Amino acid sequence: MNLNATLLVQVISFLILLFLLTKILYRPLQDLLDERVNRVKSDLEEAKRLLAEAEENRRKAQEMLHKAQEDAQLLRRKAEQDADAYYREQVRKTKEEIEKMFESARAEIQEQVKRAKAELRREVVDLSVTIASRILKREISAQEHEQIIREAIEGIVNG
Asked: How many domains does the structure of the chain reveal?
């Protein structure tokens, strides 16, 4: 019976040790491991969430970059169109100014030609009167002079 009593004491000691180990060591260790597993799971879920968020942010950034590039191209095209329109407008204005200058020069030349013709007529008439008076060897009065000038001008203008 001695053997049986020792066996019974060993079995009871083993059960008490098992109970104590379970209560003191195994349960806290299991809780610690469960907590660690839960923390790792939550960290993995947080990492997945952050990765998804980062991917979403990257996608949004790509969209924004694409949109900014499109906007920049639109702005560049608009600037080129505006510059081209400005250039054409300046060319048109310059052509108009040149045309006005030519018209003004033509008008001035025509006016100078008219004055030159009138001056030439007067000189021709004066010269004709002088020649005529020398030929006639007499002095012509101012009234006769005027009459001769008018007749000569009418003859030049009409003829």
From this structure: 1
pLDDT category at 145 given cuts 50, 70, 90 is confident
- Other C-beta atoms lying within 10 Å of the C-beta of residue 78: 10
Tokens encoding 105 = 């020069």
**Does position 3 have pLDDT exceeding 80, yes or no?**
no
Q: How far apart are the first and last CA of the chain?
A: 174
Mean pLDDT of 68-72: 94
Is residue 76 one of the residues assigned to a domain?
yes
Q: What are the distances in angstroms from CA 2 to CA 9, 11, 12, 109?
A: 10, 14, 15, 153
Location of structure tokens 């510059």:
83
pLDDT at residue 154 in the model:
75
Is residue 136 included in any domain, yes or no? Answer: yes
Q: In which domain, by residue range, is 146 found?
A: 42-158
For residue 11, give Cα distances in angstroms to 6, 14, 18, 26: 8, 5, 10, 19
> Would residue 121 count as lying in a domain?
yes
Between residues 123 and 34, which one has the greater pLDDT? 34
d(Cα 154, Cα 121) in Å, to the nearest integer? 10
Q: Is there a domain that residue 104 lies in?
A: yes
